[in-house]
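User: Before I run my own analysis I want an independent prediction to cross-check against. Here's the chain; please return only the structure tokens and, at the end, one sentence I can use as a sanity check.
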Amino acid sequence: MRDPSGVHDRTGKHEHRDRDQRKLGCAAVHVQRHVHEGKELCESFGVSRTPLREALKVLASEGFVVLQANRGARVAQVTREELENTFPVIAVLEQLAGELACQHLGAKELAWIEKRHEAMLKAYASRDRKSYFQANQDIHEALIRGAGNEILEGHHKLLAARVRRARYMANLSDERWAQAIDEHEIIMKHLRARDAEGLGRIMKLHMMNKHLAHIKALEDENGPASEGGHQA
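Assistant: Structure tokens:
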């Protein structure tokens, strides 16, 4: 989908290349938890070793895998400590982004976010999780960029990459999914009204509720007392 606001156009070919590499790498991760750049894996995806290596580098930069010398890569661990330390900071950054976005977002940017919101609602209605997550991520990234603060955007991107893999780990319950949709409806209400304080408040709450959902998923997998890792 072409973005009339220029949000995606600014990244150009590099973004498309990284997305393709990310898709390849994620597919490889799903095939096996310890990923080796061997002939069998390359044949499975119909690629040479070079694009597979590049894909794994992208995943490593985003915290999905850990590269190991002469051993390929392994799926990165998600720990409760990492979630506990990172999500509250992301929540505060999203709060500030929401407040600033109300001041800086133009009509075209807002219209594009409205379209992605509608796409997200349709994905929810049809239980299309893949499309839902993509639309959801597009909205959050547009609001972060809409804040017009490169320092905020850079820190958010760095921290979000560290916990993004937790999204793939967690099973989104029907209850949490419905709650997230309600929260996004409130986000749009405040955004349309240019209510900076209200938007910032709900964006922070939205992220903290997401944090609780990820913690619950980790506890369901490892037990409530677990501080260890989980292989996504």
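Sanity check: Confidence is low (pLDDT under 50) at residues 7-15, 27-33, 225-232.
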